[in-house]
Amino acid sequence: MNVVGIIAEYNPFHRGHEYQILKLREICHADYVIIAMSGNFVQRGAPALMDKYSRTRMALSCGADLVLELPSLFATASAEYFSTGGVCLLNGAGVVTHLGFGAETENHQLLCALADLLSKEPEHYRENLRRELKTGASFPAARSAALRNYIATDMPSLLQNYYTESASPDLQPSHATFTEIEDILISPNNILALEYLQALATSGSDIIPTPICRKGNGYHDTAITQDFCSASAIRSCLREKLPCLQTVEQTHTANCPTKNGSFPIPETAMPKTAYDILNHYPHPFLFEDDLSALLHYELLTDDTDRLAAWGDSSQEIANRLSAEREHFTNWSGFCQHMKTKNITHARLSRLFTHMLLHIRQEDYRRFTAPAYLRVLGFRKSAAPLLSAIKSHSSLPLITNAADAERFLSPEAQQLWQFDMRSSDLYRLCLAAKGDYSMKNDYRQQIICL
């Protein structure tokens, strides 16, 4: 049985995601596709646009067979922990044969060579990296410069081997090659691809990495097109053009897209079933600024020691937060105010999410991998897949939240509580916008199509 695993957020699901699932089914001859999906908070440090069950329904209606929740500790982490958590979750299922992921380069051989170098971290490369970081460069910029310097002086360790094995032996190392490497290292999808490859290697996994070229607009592209527009574009459009969808009363009355045609997302930009789910979503959409009041309170009441202890924080950041919190206006504005050359907007947003979810740096040392498989939804035709997981999984399979206490160890239950807090916080934000209809995780049934 061939089973493809995909680590995703689907925030929201679009045509590029559908293409990825269908393409991976084809090239891997897959019997089933399992998604390890972020829950109600995502890796860029923000609430998901839509709740995890609605996004699960999107995935299942567009080609996935089973959706598992990536625990919040990993779903809201930096690329390294996010990737490690997803890979370990799929490893734990015991049935996944291929890991599918998108990349923005067709040069998959070079991608694998770079991942191999980064996982081994030769001493000369580490020296280059330390030197670049001391200049105040951000980590991505420092890593790119360190790799370039390393490759320029230690050619046999990477490029010579790469060109020897290349399908085009007449190619010679050149400036274009360095440019290609830099392009790989600044692309969000390529960065995640490198992390997936490293996680597979360090975990000793037998899962086969299967990168495919990403279709459509770039990850950060906010242009709305008729097809293959990015999730960022969909979120930006909804945030900017549908401000009246910010309360549940307006969602259900004046701004019913099917009645007045005001919905700004082209129907062709998403698979039909996913579009219909988005179009008829019964809750307000959530954005990071919807949590501004909660974040502001936390900033006002935390001392510097507490601020320094949160995930993605440091003593330097904590001191700056204490000194600058009087300039707080809202979540996104404060990220913009606080970011520096070596402290990115994304890191700050993840830190703020960790503050509200009470995720500390020490939690990442305590929990190095997911401790359970939480089912969010499945297709009825995937019953044999669930049976196989029950037989081969190294982790307990949770299909009912009420069973968690019975099946999980005391330590695993602490990891579980981050997920429960994440869902409670999400419901609290909806309630602040007038929507009290979302059920808590103990009352919500898993999605079955």
Number of strands: 10
The helix count comes to 23
The assigned structural class equals alpha/beta
Gyration radius (Cα, Å) is 22 Å
- Residue-averaged pLDDT: 88
In percent, how helical is the residue content?
A: 40-55%
* Proportion of residues in β-strands: 5-15%
**Any low-confidence stretches, pLDDT <50, length ≥5?**
163-176, 244-260
Which features characterize this protein?
alpha/beta; 8-stranded mixed beta sheet; 449 residues
Care to give the gist of this entry?
With 449 residues, the protein is an alpha/beta fold.
Task: Give structural notes.
It is a single chain. It is built from 23 helices and ten strands. It is α/β, with parallel strands linked by helices. The strands form two sheets. Strands 1, 2, 5, 6, 7, 8, 9 and 10 form an eight-stranded mixed β-sheet that branches. Strands 3-4 form a two-stranded antiparallel sheet. Helix 21 (about 385-390) links the parallel strand 8 and strand 9 (about 395-400). It is globular. The two termini are about 20 Å apart. Residues about 165-175 and about 245-260 have low confidence and may be disordered.
